[in-house]
Sequence to fold (74 residues):
Amino acid sequence: MSDLARRPGSRPTRRQREDRAYRLVLATGAFSVIAVVAVVLAVVGVISLGPAVLAAVVAAVCALILRRTLAGGG
Fold:
């Protein structure tokens, strides 16, 4: 314990965590909107349901990463 200086790269700064969380919120919202619009277009018959499912999966992954980012901030 003679050297109390933080090791570089050990943990992101608070500002970096805030930026990451903000970007994840934007991505989750955007992919959620895309999924809803794609479902509506699929019901109308313009496109297939594939893009809606893909966008929903990506939105869910972004939400999980966001949750992990926010939980690790303590």
Remarks:
- The mean pLDDT is 89.
